[in-house]
Every structure is written in structure tokens, then in C-alpha cells.
Amino acid sequence: MSRIGKLPIELPAKVEVSVDKSNVVTVKGPKGTLHQAVDPDISISIEDSTLTVTRPTEQKRHKAMHGLYRALIANMIKGVNEGFRVDLELVGVGYKSTLQGPNALELSLGYSHNLIIGLPQEIKVSTITEKGKNPIVTLEGIDKQLIGQVAAKLRSLREVEPYKGKGIRFVGEVVRRKAGKTSAK
Questions:
Q1: pTM here?
Q2: Which of 13, 178, 179, 180 is spaced 20 to 30 Å from 39 by Cα?
Q3: How many angstroms separate the CA atoms of 96 and 44, rounded?
Q4: Domains of the chain by range and CATH?
Q5: Among the listed residues 50, 75, 60, the one whose alpha carbon sits nearest the alpha carbon of residue 2
Q6: How far apart are CA 141 and CA 80, in angstroms?
Q7: Could you list the pLDDT tens digit for every one of the 185 residues in the chain?
Q8: How would you write the chain as a 3-class SS string?
């Protein structure tokens, strides 16, 4: 059995899960609604306040999908109940972030021009700029995959470089630093 796939998922009191005939899982909660199409071979059963995912055979394909769909459904349940949050830190002299309306973010990252990034409607973004500290961009939403994708896109705009440590990084991320050139004797 898949170590992840065989674990049952506890359903919180406020979350409602339903599976239709075409094997689409719908999760409704206090923060919103998410949908996920599941492979027809994988079966989902809901008893009391637990959800279990089972596979029909021990084929490699079924084993892979078993853990995958269990993890996706667990993330959907956590997302509609609590939500997900990612904090990005802008490290560098003159790096700034400001909001341009509800779904646009303006970043000053040391290029010759500012970058204006459009964000999906499902994500709430906020920026914090305190004197003497690095600016922080916070992304919040119910879809873990979408938040991770947007965070990776923002991070790719200015990768963290190993010599001075400048760039966009996750809050708390450890960057391995390299020593610079040494002077010749």
C-alpha cells in the first residue's frame, strides 16, 4: 500500500465533500469551493467524517495515482478550511513592492524599469514595508498549487544569487553563500 494513499482524511465539521458520477471531487468550506477530477480507476468513499482513497490493483500506475489523489484531496480540504499562505522576502538595496489595485503587484528589483505583475483573482496579495527591514510580499488563497505556482513565478523574476544573497526568497529560507575572490599575494 502507498504510505500516503492509505491514510484516511479526517473531515472538519464545516467542510462538505461530494463525489459525482464522473469522479469529480467537490470540496466546500468556509473559505470557498474547489473541484478536482479524479481518475476513474481510483475510488473514493466517505463514511461518517472520514474520507478514504482506494486503488483497484497493485499496478505501478495505480500506486502512483493513489498517493497523488489522496494528497490533492487533503490539500483541498485544508485549503477551504484554513487556507494557505506564502511569504516572500525581497533582499537587496532598493528592492520594493507596492500594490497596483487588487490584483496587480509592482516590483522594483534593480532592473532599469519596474515590473508590474498581474495575479489571479483567487489570490489575495499584501505587501509589508518596514524601515530597516526587507519588504515582504504575502500571498494567500485556498488553492495550494496556484499559490505555489505564483510564488515560483515571482521568485524567478530575481533568483537569489550566492555571493551577496540578493534576490527574492521565501521567508526563513536558508541561502548557501559562497566566498568571493581572494586577492593575489
A1: 0.87
A2: 13
A3: 47
A4: 9-81 (3.90.930.12), 84-170 (3.90.930.12)
A5: 60
A6: 9
A7: 568 888 999 999 999 999 998 989 999 999 999 999 999 999 999 998 999 999 999 899 998 899 999 999 999 999 999 999 999 999 999 899 999 988 899 999 999 999 999 999 999 999 999 998 999 999 999 999 999 999 999 999 999 999 999 999 999 989 999 988 876 56
A8: CCCCCCCCEECCCCCEEEECCCCEEEEEECCEEEEEECCCCCEEEEECCEEEEECCCCCHHHHHHHHHHHHHHHHHHHHHHCCEEEEEEEECCCCEEEECCCCEEEEECCCCCCEEEECCCCCEEEEECCCCCCCEEEEEECCHHHHHHHHHHHHHCCCCCCCCCCEEEECCCCCCCCCCCCCCC
Q: How many angstroms separate the CA atoms of 37 and 57, rounded?
A: 20
